Automatic annotation (TrEMBL):
<feature type="transmembrane region" description="Helical">
    <location>
        <begin position="94"/>
        <end position="119"/>
    </location>
</feature>
<feature type="transmembrane region" description="Helical">
    <location>
        <begin position="171"/>
        <end position="192"/>
    </location>
</feature>
<dbReference type="Pfam" id="PF12679">
    <property type="entry name" value="ABC2_membrane_2"/>
</dbReference>
<feature type="transmembrane region" description="Helical">
    <location>
        <begin position="51"/>
        <end position="73"/>
    </location>
</feature>
<keyword id="KW-0472">Membrane</keyword>
<dbReference type="GO" id="GO:0005886">
    <property type="term" value="C:plasma membrane"/>
</dbReference>
<feature type="transmembrane region" description="Helical">
    <location>
        <begin position="139"/>
        <end position="159"/>
    </location>
</feature>
<protein>
    <submittedName>
        <fullName>ABC-type transport system for multi-copper enzyme maturation, permease component</fullName>
    </submittedName>
</protein>
<keyword id="KW-1133">Transmembrane helix</keyword>
<feature type="transmembrane region" description="Helical">
    <location>
        <begin position="232"/>
        <end position="250"/>
    </location>
</feature>
<keyword id="KW-0812">Transmembrane</keyword>
<feature type="transmembrane region" description="Helical">
    <location>
        <begin position="18"/>
        <end position="36"/>
    </location>
</feature>
<dbReference type="GO" id="GO:0140359">
    <property type="term" value="F:ABC-type transporter activity"/>
</dbReference>
Amino acid sequence: MLTLMKQEYYKTFKQNRLYIWLGLSVIFPLAIMGIFKSQRGAGSITDLGHATFYVYLVGIIITALSVSQEFSFGTIRPLLSRRFSRGMIFTSKLLLNLSIYITLFIGAFIGTMIGQLIFAPKFDFSERVSYAGNGWQTMGITVIDTLFQMIFVAALVLLITNLVKSSGAAIGLGVVMIVGTPILSSISMLLINMAPILKWNPFNIFIGMAAYGQASPSMIKSMVHMSQGTVVIAYLVYILAMYVIAYLIFKKRSV
């Protein structure tokens, strides 16, 4: 597995120029805070200089390309010829993607801290800034919440990428789920009004997880019509189901 992971990182650095994406994760919050004076407050700083959007977008792109390029470039053939199983290859991609997400967050955090020291030196992280708590707590909740959302969308992206054999369609869907949350919320509410059982639709679960830690349990329940704990359980079930289906399709794809 170690050899396989080394090859995955090599391919990502060579094919997708990962070092550029990582460098931009540091620059993004610096640029936002440096250019826009209005983005030097608590809301921007605890959102990593709004770099959570950048991390989200890049993470989805890398996730889709990690599978589609394996087949379009034909690099899966030499891996299989070396007796790596498809299960090992798929697992290595999940580990690769997760490590990239974390590294992107670290880069965004570094950029945010530099930006805060330069452009908002008086900001006090110990002061309460949101429902989640002080600056550090709010930032931590924001990062964890975004990571959970990314894992959910990444599962859907992997599923679509394997199903339609196109990274473009999967990336498009991922972008819609990033920027179209109000639309998803409206669709979800429409479905629930049609039939209460449709509260279990994936959009509703995604919205519930997006609000986790950002809103009170009672507010989340009024939004998605289920308790916070139920949302988490449904989220885990959806995650498991989507990754299993994505793997089964990946396992059957011809090379």
